[in-house]
Amino acid sequence: MxxxxxxxxxxxxxxxxxxxxxxxxxxxxxxxxxxxxxFGSLGVGWLASVSELRRWPLLIFLRVELVGVxxxxxLLALGGMILVRxxxxxxxxxTVWGAETRRATLTAIVAWGAPLAxxxxxxxxxxxxxxxxxKVMVNNLNPYVDGYDQLQNYLQTGxxxxxxxxxxPYGPIFLWMEEFIxxxxxxxxxxxxxxxxxxxxxxxxxxVYYGPKLAELHGINPNRALWLACANPLFLTTLIASIHNDAxxxxxxxxxxxxxATRRALLGILLVxxxxxxxxITLIFLPxxxxxxAGKGASWPRKFGYWTMTAGLSFGLLAVLGVINGLGxxxxxxxxxxxxxxxxxxxxxxLLGILLGLVAGGLGFDGAAVQSAVYTAGxxxxxxxxxxxxxxxxxxxxxxxxxxALAAVVLLGxxxxxxxxxxxxxxxxxxxxxxxWQVRTVYAVTSFLMIxxxxxxxxxxxxxxxxxxxxxxLACIVAVAFALYLVFVDPKTRKLFRKKYADADDQRLF
Length: 510
Fold this sequence. Notes:
globular, 510 residues
């Protein structure tokens, strides 16, 4: 994997001033959409019941008065879809992905991300679970055994009761972060949220920095990869607006992968291990880090040797961390219990399990057993694909093989959250997303999951006549109508969903 130099931008048309002028409109459009989401979050973003913000007159109007709640839902839904359009249009402006497009894309990421960084948490209550788990740590309880239901008045923290009795699925590094933030903030929800958001922004910044570097190693245009993965509305909303710890997990993993690919394997293993200490899903990176460390043309004994050393170093460090916090490898057992039995209708395996379970039940068989068997089959298939990608394929495609392995784990599970797709975006963008059905799939999946997020997670005050179901229906109507406009009516964006808009292959570096 050797880096190549990106192409220079041509003179006008398509030169620096031309690119700047055309991209500015899309950047402004996306910024407007992002600010609309910010204002919408004031009315329907997630707040703890004890939050002092609930006493602000503006938020009282937006959260309790019928007009305010409806306005907030519309602003959130419309703003989110405007952000999708701005992202699509920004990519359309670039006929050559040179240095000026890097500046425009970075400007867009900052301009679109800033309002989301100020918003009340959107589309997820996980940040409140982080606060509750931090309180578990501060109270010297074992988060791998004790759920946050052990806390007095835990519902007031804002955390979802669904996970209250579940062990914490996170690694020791993030447990310490949770504990430190709760200790420093005194458990104050808003102060804690600010600190968790700083961590999320730091993780997102690492993705912005290392994603293009990985693309250069593969001869893929880093500027296009940056636009596809990090200016993507799904990336910005799930990592920054939702404050998921996946941001820090992913940023550390990409950094470790880059250093391993540039012959700094020990640093790479350290960073990936820190990522595992945030959220253990990145364990899947380790065998591919080992292959990079073994080097091109390595024999099988050498590969197995470097796999052993990679695993030994990573798990050795995790063992030391487990000794320090006294919790050992408790996260392994907690991880196996997390989300057991959960599914979502748009996950292919989840949907198949439901349908076959219903058919089996109708025929007099145990539908639940059939459904469970389908989910197990999906997991087994994912493991087999991971093993295949570990053992088969060229050295130059190791990162692509990792992307396929992680995609198998995500797509063959019964539960697919929007931020799971964000794990995949930088890896596939860095190893090449062709300007055909592949990029159209990214457009479609991004649009669909933005619609789902907009309509699924809304904090609606329960004692007003406009209930949660009505709010979701309104958000769905607005978001779906805008998506249909983008796909079938908008003269600028509709062609993106039908055919590629440039004859040249614009992702390679020449």
